[in-house]
Amino acid sequence: MNKTLKLLILVSIFIVVLNILSLSITDQRIKIKLGNEILFEKHFDLIKGKRIGLITNQTGLNSQFESTAALLANNTQTNLVALFTPEHGLDGKAKAGEYVESYLHDQYKIPVYSLYGPTRKPTPKMLENIDLLLFDIQDIGARTYTYISTLNYCMWAAKENGKTVVVLDRPNPLGGLTIDGPVSEDGFLTFVGVDILPMVHGMTVGELARYFNRRIGVRLIVVPMDGYTRDMMFPDTGLCWIPTSPMIPDFLSALLYTATGLGEGTGIRQDDYFKWVGGKGIDSKIFAQELNRIGLPGVRFVPENKGELGGVRLSITNMRTFQPAYTGLCILSCSHKLISYPVPKSEDELTMFDKIMGTALIGKLIKSDVSYQDLKKAYRESLENFKKKREKYLIYK
Fold it and tell me: Which of 102, 130, 131, 218 could form a disulfide with 159 if both were Cys (CB 3.0 to 4.6 A apart)?
């Protein structure tokens, strides 16, 4: 056998192997079908001939990166009449807290109503030419992330105006088994905590809609995913992460959001897209040593200075055992023990710190420098009660 023939055979074998590997990777990559895909495949009758208001942003894509807005706008059997956008706008690029104005969509020639700013709930005028509101946005599994608040407000508006809400379900990136942190109280419900929920709720947006609806009573339809199970975290789905907002560019940022983003008004702040946390006056090495001594599951703390700030970078060792909210509370408690920062206290109005916590209790406990164990005990009963209450609203096993 000459060298040329040998080379051709080797190249052919190499190509075959690559094709097999490629098929294998493709087969294993996407393990679920999103609600927006199931809508078009099995439940098109829900939207056929209907005047649709779509609540969405840049995450409203299917697994093939086709936007739900485009699929509706380009389908002759559907009538997309308006878009509604949450915080960060339709493209997801506006900064946190930045007001985005409503405008006319250049391509679709329909209104794009901003639901972040003076108007956070669709008005009767916005809904008068709409038959149903369709929700397709990727959440990150945290109570304070405002996309679920927009869902809640839209459900109330639909109830008040006799409209139907259809939620196209998507995975909870943190999975359905992690339920963590203090549960919000009725007197502390705000746009960063719109219902009685723990910081990390372990529910999909479809399940949350069903839970919200216990108080609202709107005509609600959830289009569930196919192939999704409660033990799936985002990397298990095979889907590609679409940045949900400017500060959540990847799954790790979503996982760490609650762990490092709880220090509003304390001087303890996050950086590097929620992957680092620290503050002025903190000794990074001591901070890391003390945090590692607690023995929090699924995470190690690496000392790292940022200019005049001392802090730690979080290194996830096991995403399934990691407890984001409890880790975040321990970070605040440990840093308070080290530098005694002022803990914000609600008086005439709620502080942002208490809004995020959903209760005034946690601030009081941190200020008193209670043990980490007592910190967790403080919300254990309410967390267990929530777990039981949410059972009837769950969709997936």
Answer: 218
Point out which residues pair with 189 in neighbouring strands.
Answer: none
335, 270 contact by CB (below 8 A): no
In contact, 63 and 198? CB cutoff 8 Å: no
pLDDT band for 1, please (50, 70, 90 cuts): low
Is pLDDT at 3 greater than 80 in this prediction? no
Residue 217: both structure tokens together: 């009573």
Q: What's the CATH class of domain 251-379?
A: alpha beta
- Which residues make up the CATH 3.40.50.12170 domain(s) of the chain? 35-169+204-230
Phi then psi for residue 71, to 5 deg, are -65, -40
Structure tokens at 285: 């090495």
The predicted model scores a pTM of 0.91
Tell me how far apart the alpha carbons of residues 264 and 351 are, in angstroms, rounded to a whole number.
9
CB 237 within 8 A of CB 34: no
Contact 135, 209 (CB under 8 A): yes
Q: Where does CATH 3.90.1150.140 sit in the chain? A: 251-379
CB 65 within 8 A of CB 161: no
**Encoding tokens for residue 69?**
């807005």
pLDDT tens digits along 30-89:
899 999 999 999 999 999 999 999 999 999 999 999 999 999 999 999 999 999 999 999
Dihedral over Cα of 322, 257, 194, 237: its sign: negative
Task: Report the SS3 class of residue 88.
Answer: coil
Diameter over CA atoms, the chain: 90
81-109: average pLDDT: 94
Instruction: Write down the mean pLDDT value for the chain.
Output: 93
Assess if CATH 3.40.50.300 describes domain 35-169+204-230: no
The answer to whether residues 209 and 148 touch, using CB atoms and an 8 Å cutoff, is no
